[in-house]
Amino acid sequence: MDMDFFKAKDTITVAKALLGTLLTYDHLGQQYAGYIVETEAYLGQIDAASHAFRGKRTVRNEALFAPSGAIYIYQMRGLYLLNVITAAKDTPEGVLIRGIEPVINLTQMIENRHGQKGINVTNGPGKLCQAMALHTLSYNGKRFGEVPLDIEVDHRAVPKTVLAASRIGVPNKGEWTEKALRFYVAHNPYVSKLPKKMMDFKTRGWQTDESTNF
DNA sequence: TTGACGATGCCCT
DNA sequence: GGGCATCGTCAAA
């Protein structure tokens, strides 16, 4: 991953810019990849929904304080959730990857998801990690590309429209519950909790046939 | 096809 | 022992 990607970008800008980039992972001889279609920005100490709200710093969220380009993975109810760190060292801001569109190795992804098919393979933050067999905390604090987990920001699909909405699973946090800090590729079927009638299975919300970029 | 809810593992107090 | 940046199942339309 080219670290210039983060240059002069705040966390919200990074969250939008990540849409359409390619998330890749190599594990046990299997290669996995998918276009990022949904992200959420978490704005550090001031954000009531952030793991680092009011500067909270523990062994679990330590990677949030790493410099931009670092990986932050944590577990919830036995699932793994993947974040991109976006700001300078000791500024605990990041972006949660909430959905990807499978590009490479869909067959193995379905198997990893215990037979779940279609959009259910990768339309959620826990689901996409399970699909790619990403189930380790050992990459925490490492940089994308330094380990078999990477984000390709050059070979990318271009969203026709990017929409913003409130974040999912953030209840009772006042203004931070309402803020539009979730970003997604309009009409892409792999966006979590998108109403079926909004999905476009033909263009999937990309500007052009993104397969030609690959 | 959508919304409600219970299961579930682990970190933190 | 509480709480959680979730998921899959079930029931009703």
UniProtKB/TrEMBL annotation:
Its EC number is 3.2.2.-. Pfam families: Pur_DNA_glyco. One of its GO terms (molecular function) is alkylbase DNA N-glycosylase activity. Keywords: DNA damage, DNA repair, Hydrolase. One of its GO terms (biological process) is base-excision repair. It is an enzyme of class 3 (hydrolase). Belongs to the DNA glycosylase MPG family. This is Putative 3-methyladenine DNA glycosylase.
